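Interim report, section 4.2 (structural modelling).
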Amino acid sequence: MNMDPLGRPADFLLVEDNPGDVRLTQEALKNHKVQNNLHVVTDGEEAMDFLRRQGKHKNAPRPDIILLDLNLPRKDGREVLAEIKSDPDLKTIPVVIITSSEAEQDIVKSYNLNANCYVTKPVDLDQFIKVVQSINDFWLTIVKLPSAPR
Amino acid sequence: MDNFDIPLASRAYSSTDLAKLQIFEKILKGNVEGIIITDTHGNIEWVNNTFSLLTGHAKAEAQGKHLGFLFSGEQDIYESLCPKLNEVNHHEVETRMRRKDGDEFPVELTLSAVRGDADMITHHVLEFSDITELCHAREELTQRTRELSRSNQELEQFAYVASHDLQEPLRMIASYTQLIAQRYRGKLDADADEFIGYAVDGATRMQAIINDLLKLSRVGTHNTVFTRVNAQAALDRALANLRLVIEESGASIVCDPLPSLNADESQLTQLFQNLIGNALKFRGSSSPCIQIGAEHQGEAWVFHVRDNGIGIAPEYSERIFLMFQRLHGKKEYPGTGIGLTICKKIIEHHGGRIWVESEQGKGSTFYFAIPTTLH
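Predicted structure of the assembly:
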């Protein structure tokens, strides 16, 4: 059964410095109906290198969706978000903020920086898995996204 | 002596009735306040004993002098107040006076006019008392209040940060013990299953506690916003949040019409949710009946949440509002022991009161009063 609307596995970019959360996301996406490649970077600088195909990420694919934590070493998630959304080549990639912060100011700031949605990491494992899978389903099978600018 | 009108009495000062004058002088002399009588230009004509006691100036030293020397130079209280005496009969100020040794001391000073024939001002009377101790006490009070509010703020901040930051590592423990449970339960040995069970249970309970602590600390740190709130809407939201438990318990919930009042909407919702949640949790053998209403009493709305649950023995009616106080084992009735503490804090934030009336086995009624004067 091919549930794959892209006609190829989706490329996820997960920007997350906590290995525990990385693994949980991997577990959540494992065996999910949509095939995917999960690329992981652990800080904001590396995220930008990946997106701009610089350094060791020269051959990186253009991700179909970015899962971005806010609190990251070196370059903060908010800065990464601002850079993505002001870059004409990158701004159409949906960015899902997934963070443990429930602070109103983080939510407001993220949307002001044009985050596509803001999700707090659920404390419960089953909820966490459900959230990651819902993000996947919604952004990769339900919504229509433009193709990458040439 | 308290009701003794000094300016009126001082009128006798210019009286010609010598006997009267002597009586008044006796009374004025021993008055607890320092008294200075001047002419309308501020030249001292008479002072009492307390004056000498407080300022260190003997009567003879003061008499005949302009009273300016008793005040610090920066600002001539007397000069600035005198003109006003034409409009009002007396003035009260706090100022500083100078003692003979040069030291200054704070005083509370009343300046009044003595009127003679045809209502003409003939003399000025200054009554003063040393308020050094009062000033110290005031300063100390301000200082302590400041310290107290700072330490309170720090505590609230600490509770918030601690519970917030603990959530992160705890999420890891909880998620991974759950993952182990899901993947390996029944695949290791019986001991392993038991251990996993305890670990999952412990992490889950700790999460509940941390969540409640966060809620509790938010009642303080997050700015409480008092707006016009429809209590009915707050209740409806609470009931919606409890929908699953209500359905599962088969509870019947009856609600009188509720008023609109000034309150913090989300806190009021939380309050209803905790009280109704308790009513559902501590149900008896029959299916739960919960009745909610409000009554206007004096300057407050008194709400009640009445249930037919297991009730509370009267000796515990105070204790249940304290943090981590539980009356039952965790197996019978799970919970963190923070729910009613949150209710109490919310109500205290609203300047109100919360209490319970109950009898063991006969249900409980929780009351909370919110003043209508809240802004």
